[in-house]
């Protein structure tokens, strides 16, 4: 693994997925509280009301981080715990919770990376137009300022927004995510307002501390056309526009991809950019966060089967695939990283998420032998090494997730954690993949097995 010598090892979570305690500590409702209350919105009607209980008791999470020997931990702070309403009042209890977590991370020698927006928009902002309104940008910049002033002595690395594609297109077109709207021009507007907000917030954070490192996290998918037929190639271009280029190119180049108006229509585009200077979205980044999960093969179809991209069909995922039907394509991971590296050769890449959702269970002996995730880590870190060898400047890797948590519309059914979460007690048990990741980190950090023992002894 020496090819990965420069990579910092981490894992990631997000506030609504782990904290629970949604009515405690002065937290105000978010779009996910509202959305999960709708019948049928999530598997089994699951909600984040309890989740992993990390708000009431973050110790288990912190011990898990230390046990793994993580160098860095990515988590999000809940806007709804920091700012309590339109007047912009900040909430000392919410701030105190995150200060406690950050102080504990510092004491344990772990560098935090804080995501400011991981999908939990306060409901009072949704009621005023949510991500279609530039008032949301102003409110976010205020939140970012408060977070930076109150926590900036303990945090140097910030992610403005997480996966604007999902928040825009699953939140406002497929309706699979909060706020559950289904309207394409609204989705495009929500994408642009989030990107604009990213740029504004990045500038605001820099004004507070020029040494902050600032990026955003975008999910990019590896897409292949089913055939070389011109219609399939066109379908592939459209899918790539909506899922990848709209975000990647706009953030790096400060202009919309040339085919945006052809696909969405001129009216939708002019509505989406109203009041926004697109060139200012390309505020220079200190790093780009890439979340990688998906490989898909697409072809043209009149009645497409994709909920987000019109006129395309996503073919059944080819073998090899995981037991829950997701393509196991580490080569796609390498391609995505090299694509980013080709566009922005000097920009550090942080893999801010990568992982696999499985139906894990504890065996009779109380352990979780997640062999698919173990194989996944081997294969995807090899793929990461391939990308590094070919020139991708990867500085950090965050496995999603530290522990099983509330997986949005899938509720608690799908488990992504290195640690198995017993709901609702919140008890965490390291899976086989956690043992493996821990050994790998110990080896990469230079101490080999001895270091793994030392990390274990300290836990
Ligand atoms: C990503 C999200 C993250 C988690 C993983 C599995 O799209 O950013 O919160 O749900 O997928």
Explain what this protein looks like in three dimensions:
- The chain has 459 residues and is an alpha/beta fold.
- The protein has one domain (2-215, 245-293, 324-454): Alpha-Beta Barrel (TIM Barrel).
- The protein has 16 helices and 13 strands.
- It has helices at 15-18, 31-36, 59-68, 79-82, 92-107, 123-126, 134-151, 164-172, 184-208, 230-253, 260-264, 266-272, 330-343, 371-389, 432-444, 448-458, and strands at 8-12, 72-76, 111-117, 157-162, 213-219, 222-225, 288-292, 295-300, 312-314, 349-354, 394-400, 419-422, 427-430.
- The strands form three sheets. The chain has an eight-stranded parallel β-barrel with strand order 1-2-3-4-5-7-10-11, surrounded by seven helices. Strands 6-8-9 form a three-stranded mixed beta sheet.
- Helix 9 (184-208) packs parallel to helix 12, helix 14 packs parallel to helix 15 and helix 15 packs across helix 16 (448-458).
- The longest helix is centred in the middle third of the chain and has 25 residues, at 184-208.
- The protein starts with 7 loop residues before the first strand and ends with a helix.
- Residues 449-459 have low confidence and may be disordered.
- The structure holds beta-D-fucopyranose.
- Beta-D-fucopyranose binds next to loops.
Largest β sheet strand count, sense and barrel closure: 8 strands, parallel, barrel
Instruction: Characterize the overall form.
Output: globular
The helix/strand order is: EHHHEHHEHHEHHEEHHHEEEHEHEEEHH
What's the pLDDT, averaged over the residues?
Answer: 96
